[in-house]
Amino acid sequence: MTSLMLKEARSAGSHVAEQLARDQARYAELGRWLRTAPPSGIVTVARGSSDHAASYCAYLTMVRLGHIVASLPMSLVTLNKAPLIARDALAIAISQSGQSPDVIEPIRYFRDGGATTVALINDAESPLAKTAEWTLPLHAGAELSVAATKSFIASLVAGALFAGHWQDDAGFLHALDSLPESLQRAADSDWSKAVEILAPATSIMVVGRGIGFPLALEAALKFKETSAIQAEAFSGAEIKHGPMALINEGYPLLMFATRGPTQAGMLQLAAEMRQRGAKVLLAAPADIAERDLTLPTAVTPDLDPIVAIQAFYVMAAQLAVARGMDPDKPRHLSKVTKTS
Predict the structure, then answer these.
(1) For residue 92, what is the enclosing H or E element?
(2) Catalytic residue check, 130
């Protein structure tokens, strides 16, 4: 069985190529505006996979530009009607469909209150796209599988474009040009070992840290969504604060040891978890001898999550089929989720 999820995930490279060929002038214009009028505060507005993409965008913004970014609890606006001070703030919404009221209403609130509002969105004709001041399409094309793959990857790229143009970092922006080729290579990664180990699993912890933590969040969601595995994501810094009590002999852990300052700690944690009897699947770059899965890399470490999740998606689609499930039609779920 070749699922739509697998086909769409594998197509991400071509869609990212189109994305990089479009709207660069608009991103540059937004970057100039933000350098001229830096925001007083920044919030992201998103749900599900889009919220994980927002975490990546927030990380890049904080580490590269020094601005603190918070994820907005949307109920503050939609249910509590809290008197949030929006003037001169920046609100960034990320969405595939742009139809959920609890994403649209906060953007409308912030725009009416004098904030700069940005929508990174796949449907450029959606209500959210028409609500935000700055709409930047993802160009991922229609996504038919319930599980978001190519639109999530395009959301990560949009976050990198946003941060790169705001910082006006020509080197970083140039590195983005190599992503379509890197994604194509990543789609051919062999993670069959993970399928073999996880096919009978009922639960798993997914661990990442720093720029790799959004990977853990997204992977855990996909395990639940497409394979009905009870999955929880933890930062490598948090797992010893309680979750480690769940570890017993053979307990599976997928650990993302991405390049950068957090990698050494993740490798040490993987060794400790193995000593405690866990069945560790260590996803790490090719230069890490103790890896179980080869984590593809990009031209620069800040872009590694974009190609790493590509390899994971291919495995996740294959895992669902190995477990006798249809990854395109997860039970109880639909493509567009509308919450208030």
Answers:
(1) strand 90-95
(2) no
